[in-house]
Design a protein that fits this description.
The chain has 129 residues and is mainly beta. It has one domain (7-123). It contains 1 helix and 8 strands, in the order H-E-E-E-E-E-E-E-E. The chain has one helix spanning 7-15, and strands at 28-33, 53-57, 65-71, 74-75, 81-89, 97-109, 114-115, 121-123. The strands form 2 sheets. Strands 6-5-1-2-3-8 form a 6-stranded antiparallel beta sheet. A two-stranded antiparallel sheet has the order 4-7. Strand 2 (53-57) and strand 3 (65-71) form a beta hairpin.
Length: 129
């Protein structure tokens, strides 16, 4: 049996990504992947760009859901591939793997093109209010 968490608890946990709580991540960075990043976040890293871009989030507003405020575009350095996942990290290089996100749509990406993600939602499912 899986247990949910309260809306207030879920919202407080999500606020950590924005730097609004005492236990907040000081920053979050996204990296592109061509398949599931795996348990360590190091599988199937994009060849087109290994850069991790800073992610900022909008407030949850107490709803246990938050949306993307900003995420810079990536420029493909010379390969064609399909991006399926993002991994999230505490630093732009090295750092701690926070988790991964499977994109709702795989994104074909060809050499020298840029890839911009404008919509991303993070949420937690709370128990009934």
């Amino acid at each position: 049996m899986t247990r949910g968490i309260a809306v207030a608890t879920a919202s407080a946990e999500l606020e950590r990504f924005r730097g609004s709580a005492a236990s907040a991540f000081s920053a979050v960075f996204a990296q592109l992947h061509t398949a599931d990043p795996g348990a360590a976040g190091t599988t199937a890293i994009s060849v087109g760009s290994t850069t991790r871009n800073a992610v900022t989030w909008n407030s949850t507003g107490g709803t246990a859901t938050m949306t993307l405020a900003s995420l810079a575009a990536w420029t493909n350095g010379g390969t064609s591939e399909t991006i399926t996942d993002l991994s999230l990290w505490t630093l732009s290089s090295g750092g701690v793997f926070i988790g991964s996100v499977q994109l709702s749509v795989a994104l074909p990406w060809v050499s020298t093109n840029t890839l911009t993600i404008t919509t991303l939602t993070a949420s937690r499912t709370p128990i009934a209010a």
